[in-house]
Specification:
This protein has 506 residues and is of the alpha+beta class. It has a domain at 21-173 and 192-286 and 450-505: FAD/NAD(P)-binding domain (3-Layer(bba) Sandwich), CATH 3.50.50. The chain is built from 13 helices and 25 strands. The protein has helices at residues 21-24, 43-55, 74-77, 80-88, 133-136, 142-149, 158-169, 216-219, 265-279, 310-318, 384-408, 426-431, 490-505; strands at residues 36-39, 60-63, 96-97, 101-102, 113-114, 151-152, 155-156, 179-181, 184-188, 193-195, 201-203, 223-224, 227-235, 238-246, 251-255, 258-261, 286-288, 293-302, 321-324, 332-340, 346-355, 363-366, 376-379, 439-442, 473-475. The strands form seven sheets. The protein has a seven-stranded antiparallel beta sheet with strand order 8-9-19-20-21-18-24. A five-stranded parallel beta sheet has the order 12-2-1-16-25, with helices on both faces. It is globular, with a radius of gyration of 22 Å. The termini are far apart.
Length: 506
Amino acid sequence: MSDRAGRDQVSSPPNDNAQTANNLGVSVESLADVETLVVGAGMAGLATAAELGRRGRGSVAVLEAGPDRGRTHIQNAYSSAEALQLWLRPETDPDFHRPYQTADGAYRGLAGLRRRVGGRSLYWGGVLLPIERWALSEHWPEAIVTDLTETWDGGPSLYQRVVDDVVGWGAEPPGAPGLTLGALEFDRTPHATRTERAGKWSAFSPLAWWDDDGDPRVRRVPILAGHEVLGVRVEHGRATGVLVRTADGELGDLRAKRVVLAAGTIVNSRLAIQALADTDAAAPRELPGLVDKISQGFTVAFTDTERLPDAVRAAAHEGHVYHRTGTAGTRSNHFVRFTEGVNGAINLDSWTMGEQRRGPHGQVRCDGHHAWPWPTTVHAPFDTADETVLSAQRYLLGELWAEMARLLGVPAEPLQFSTRHGSPDLADRLTAVRSPTPLTYSFPLGSEQHEAGTLAFGEVLDMNHQFTAVEGLYACGPSVMPRTGAANPSMTTLALSKRLGAALAG
C-alpha cells in the first residue's frame, strides 16, 4: 500500500457484459409470481440467490438499490493507486453510501456501503479465513457449526465447499508454505483471488456465477438494479412482500411468499426493526449486538536488506500475505506482508484484526416517527472486553517488531500507539512512503466494514435463518453471526448463504 492516493474523483468503469434484470427485459410488473425476493445484490444476497437458482425450486429475484456498473473488481478495473483511493477516500466513489448517522464518533470516515450490483464483493481483498473454533464454540448453534466445519447436505462441510467454489473459479488452493520470522511462525493466508490481465488481480464475487459460461439456472435469476427496498410488508405476522422505490422515484409494491434481508448489517437491521414494529407496535426500535472488527497495525521500511533472511527477500518479491491465527486470549489474527519498496528497500506492513464482543452497548436504532425508510443511528462504543483486545494486538505487533530488530541486529524501540483509537489521519498514514521508523495506525469502528451481529441465530433468527417473530422473513450475511471471531466474515458469509439458499429451496 505504498502508492499515494490522489483526491480527484475516479471515473466509473464501463458496464462489462453485465446481465442484470434490465438487460434481460425483466420489469417490476413481471415479478408478480416471484416466490422469493432477496434484498441486496452484495456477497450474501447473490450467493443465496445463486444457490436457490442452482437448485431450481421456486422463482427468485434480487433487488439492488444501487446501479449496475458491471462485474469487474476494482483491482482489475483501476490502477492500484486509484483502487486504493476508492477505499481510503470513499467520497471519491460515486457508489459509496452511508444510510445512517452515528452518535459517538464511530462508523464515520471509511464506514459505509458500496451501493451497486456486486456491492463490497467487488472491493474486498479476498482473505478467506474461517471463524476460529474458539469463537464458534460459544453462542453458535451446534448444528450450524457442524454444517460449517464437518459435513453438510450429505457431503463436505460448507467451508470446504466455499474453498472448492473459489478454487474452481481460479484462486490458488490453500496450503502454500508459510514464513518463519525468528521465533514467529506465520501461515500463508488463503485468498479468493486470481491474476488477471497486465498483472492486475480480482477477488471472487458471486457475480461470477452470472457469467456467460455459468450455470444457466443461476443466470436466469434476475437482478433488478435501481430498486431500493424501503420496507418489508407484514400481514398477520407474515412477510408478504416489499415496498420499493425505483431510481426514477416511483414507488411500487412487490408481493412474495418470502423475503430475504441481505442488504448489509445496518440496512438489514433497519428493515428488521420496521418489520418487527409492524408485527408488534410495542417492539423496541433498536437492535443490540452490533460489532465491527478491531484493527491496528504499523508500517516500516528496511534499507539494510542484506541482513534480512533470504525468505524475507523472497516474500517481498512475491508480495503474499501471511498470518498467525488468533487464540481465545488475543481474539486477533496477526498479518504480515513484505513488499519491494523504493531504492531497494523492503517494506513491512503488519496489522491485526480482532473480535469486538457483542453486547447491548452496540446498537442500531431507528426513529419510528417517520415514513419508511426510518432514520437510523448507530451506537458503537468500546466495551471493557474490547480494551483487552487492543492491548493484545499491541503486544503481537510489538513482538514482531522486536523479532525483526533482532534479525537485523539493531535495537528496537517500543512501538508508540495513540491513546485515542481510530487514527484521524488514517488514509495519510496508510499511503505514506515507508520510513525506517515504524508508523502505527488504528481503524475506527466501522472502517473495516465488517459490521455484524444484530440478527443473530438463536436470538432473532431460528436455525433456518427465519425471524422467529415474522414468518417468511429471513436474513443472511454477517448480521446473523452470534459471534464473529477474528476472521474476515466473507468466507462464513458465502457458506451461510449457501446454507440459506438450500433451506429455502428445500
